[in-house]
Every structure is written in structure tokens, then in C-alpha cells.
Write a sequence for this structure.
């Protein structure tokens, strides 16, 4: 998923703040004990999420796709003093691990973990979002975007992960459903007059949107 030359990638990582000890432990345990550990945000992307959150100082964050809560805890670092992050994940097998990881964080009281189907849960939430992070099933990216955008405050942000999809978005020989949906999502948000967008080639691609 890395698009930079290895030497440049190492230089970038060497000149980026190290992940906190808890996130380092979650990173290590995820790679040792959980299927598909490449799904974890990791140090560089985690620091990017933390930096964006600290720049915004959001009161309300919505995360769609918790995995092992690495990204959750990175985003929580920038929450305002009265802030909350709602994080939704459908994978029941990870629930105990997620709860354990969150409980170890000094920001645990600010984290509302909701196991279940985000497509059903999101319409029931009444918060106004300052920041939304989409990192779940790719075939529903556009659906998630349309569900959350009305409740993102003006000037608020949406970040979508994996929008370069290991480079498959530009490979014309690839036509699976996830790749088609990522391409569709990228085209839709790029042409949506309701948002300003920048696609950052960080790790597997982060699409950053600002509601205008």
C-alpha cells in the first residue's frame, strides 16, 4: 500500500513523531494476533489522524470502522475537553479486544464504541459531526458519505481511508466491486459542490473533505 520509494518512506517515518506506547502495543498485538493486520492505520497514518484532530479540536467525531481501535485512539487525542468520539464496527469477533484497548486509554471516557451495522446505526445518531473518519467496507463508501454529510457541520471534515486501494484505482484490468466503488466514491466527492477535497497519497490514500 506504500507508493513512495522505500528510502523516502523510511525517511518520512523516521521524521514523524513516534506513536504513543499504547498505540505501539496495539500495533504489535494486532500484527501478531489479528487477521489482516494491514488494516491498522499504523504510525504514520495514525500521527496524521492525530494531527488533523488536534488542528480541529473537534467536539464530536464519528468513526465508521473501528478494527482494533488504533485509529480511534489517535483521533481521540485531539478531542476538545468535552469531546466525544462515536466508533462503529460490525465485527463481533473483535469486540472484546476493542473494549480492552479503549479501556487502557486516558481518553476512554470520551469514546463511545457501538458494535453493529453502521448503515443502521448512523441514521439513529443525532449528533452534529466536526470530523468523520470512514474506514469500513468499501462497497458502501458512497452510502456512508451520503448518510453522514447532512449532519457534518459547515466547515467540518470527512476523511476516507484506502481511496487509492493499493493502486488498483488506476489499473484498468481490475474491475471487482470494491475497486469500482472506490473509483465511484472518489469521482462523486471530487465533483460534489458541497465539499472541498484533497486526495493525499498517504499510505493507501486519504481523501480529506471539508463541507462548505
Amino acid at each position: 500500500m506504500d507508493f513512495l520509494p522505500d528510502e523516502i518512506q523510511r525517511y518520512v517515518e523516521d521524521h514523524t513523531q513516534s506513536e504513543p506506547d499504547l498505540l505501539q502495543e496495539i500495533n504489535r498485538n494486532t500484527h501478531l494476533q489479528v487477521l489482516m493486520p494491514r488494516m491498522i492505520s499504523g504510525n504514520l497514518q495514525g500521527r496524521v489522524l492525530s494531527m488533523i484532530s488536534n488542528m480541529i479540536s473537534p467536539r464530536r467525531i464519528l468513526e465508521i470502522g473501528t478494527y482494533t481501535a488504533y485509529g480511534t485512539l489517535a483521533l481521540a487525542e485531539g478531542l476538545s475537553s468535552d469531546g466525544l468520539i462515536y466508533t462503529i464496527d460490525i465485527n463481533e469477533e473483535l469486540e472484546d479486544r476493542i473494549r480492552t484497548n479503549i479501556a487502557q486509554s486516558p481518553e476512554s471516557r470520551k469514546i463511545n464504541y457501538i458494535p453493529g451495522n453502521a448503515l443502521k446505526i448512523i441514521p439513529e445518531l443525532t449528533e452534529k459531526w466536526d470530523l468523520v473518519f470512514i474506514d469500513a467496507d468499501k462497497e458502501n463508501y458512497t452510502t456512508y458519505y451520503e448518510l453522514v454529510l447532512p449532519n457534518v457541520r459547515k466547515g467540518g471534515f470527512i476523511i476516507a481511508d484506502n481511496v487509492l486501494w493499493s493502486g488498483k484505482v488506476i489499473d484498468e484490468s481490475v474491475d471487482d466491486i470494491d475497486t469500482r466503488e472506490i473509483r465511484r466514491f472518489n469521482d462523486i466527492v471530487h465533483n460534489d459542490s458541497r465539499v472541498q477535497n484533497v486526495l493525499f497519497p498517504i499510505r493507501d490514500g486519504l481523501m480529506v473533505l471539508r463541507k462548505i
Notes: The chain has a mean pLDDT of 96. Strands lie at 60-64, 84-89, 111-115, 129-134, 152-161, 195-200, 206-211.
